[in-house]
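Recap from last week: sequence in, structure out.
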Amino acid sequence: MIFDFFKKHEHSNVLKFPETKVPYVEPPKKEQEHYSIGITDDNRITLRIGYTTLTMNEEGVLDLIEALELFARQTRKRDTE
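Predicted structure tokens:
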């Protein structure tokens, strides 16, 4: 017997998925937005840079600020030497 690969099968008992239309949202241009900061419903702080989102509690934010200040001071010190 030869197989008929192009035979169409009827699937009248199968429920089709509804068509979903996702609205197009134009991504921000690089020169428009470097980062964004917000607060979640459970009082956490979010920092979005590019496609990455970092969510922290208050302690994490303060630690991050401290680390950024430290590295900024080191960079300034290196530039003046």
